[in-house]
Fold this sequence. Notes:
Blueprint: H1 5-12, E1 24-29, H2 33-49, E2 52-60, H3 61-65, H4 71-96, E3 99-107, H5 109-119, E4 124-129, H6 134-140, H7 143-150, E5 155-159
Parallel strand pairs: 1-2, 1-4, 2-3, 4-5
Amino acid sequence: MFWTARHAKKDADQGAAGLPVHRTILCAVDGSPLSYDAARHAFAQARFASATVILLYVVDTHAAYRLGVHQVEAMRELEREGQQILAGLAKDAARYGVRIKQVIRRGIPGLEIIACSVVERADLVVVGAHSRSRLGRALLGSVSEYVIRHCRAPILVVPETDDIHGDYPAEVTIPPPEDTL
């Protein structure tokens, strides 16, 4: 087998154990408590891997256009909101000792997350997943589901929950396979 530039990139992106090392982590935020949880997960990953976190806020043009004559005002307000959210997260990132880049894009959130992951060459994409019923997802759509289906980078989905281990029993017993009995 011939060694190529493609192999060089692959070798550089693997840690000592041959596991992938994330250098650029994209984290999409919208100001919800869940997106702050997602950002904390991205910061933890970045600190471990000495990676840069791209904090992305998408001004949802679809939501702004539904307001009709007030759409220009709505877009400006959403952009200001995004700047405030990113500024607050920048302070959190500094406490973690993580390098960040702030990005605000206009468009449909799912499409913009995918586009940003390509432009920024993200090695990992972090998104939050709001818990909705199947009907709610069908009617309203789901940004995280869209990203999962269309993104080419690995994705970390942070679920909406108060206690990530709350649904599991404290001790799980797994029976041995039947052929070993």
